[in-house]
Amino acid sequence: MNNLLSRLGLAMRAGKVVSGDELVLKAIRSSEAKLVIVAGDASPNTQKKFRDKCATYKVPLVIGFDRERLGTSVGRPERVVIALTDQGFADMIRKQMGTTSEVEYIE
Length: 107
Known about the structure:
The protein is an alpha+beta fold and 107 residues long. The chain has helices at 2-13, 21-29, 44-57, 67-73, 87-97, and strands spanning 17-19, 35-38, 61-64, 81-84, 103-106. The chain has a five-stranded mixed β-sheet, sandwiched between helices. The longest helix is centred in the middle third of the chain and has 14 residues, at 44-57. The protein starts with a helix and ends with a strand. 34% of the residues are buried. Keywords: Ribonucleoprotein, Ribosomal protein.
């Protein structure tokens, strides 16, 4: 678990993470996003919005963790949604997310 969050921090330091609703939506639309992570405690509306948008643009989506942990992992205040823009980081994190119990939904 800590290893996974530290890898998100590494991706952030490498400049391969986008956070915030509008920036993530823009990354999804431009095919820049390789993996989107939505906090498990995000509102049902927010989860549905990103689930639908990711399905439309065929971007993998993960719903899990909480906003505080996501924010802390990337060195920012609470974050509800983040996107990884590098395929290598996205693959590494997706592979590791399949083994954690904190993840509710992987598509």
